[in-house]
Amino acid sequence: MSGVTIGDGAVVAAGAVVTGDVAPYSVVGGVRAKHLKYRIEPDLIPAMLRIAWWEWPDDVIRERVDDLSSPDIAAFVEKYGA
């Protein structure tokens, strides 16, 4: 849909009909998609957006793949937070 923004880290469920903006790290689903939950703790979202790991060069991502694969988002933010 024209004019809709899907935030960084967001997940849109298969078959969802997105009619409005989707917040970063939000999970949405349904026909007229609605917010279901956040992928990470909401207080960590601003730091993850500042870190913007998806903008890192490929070689840096390869070096840090273990940290990127860890389920401990708070530790990741503490280590790489700006």
TrEMBL record:
Source species, domain of life: Bacteria
Entry-linked InterPro entries: Trans_hexapeptide_repeat, Trimer_LpxA-like_sf
Protein name, per record: Virginiamycin A acetyltransferase
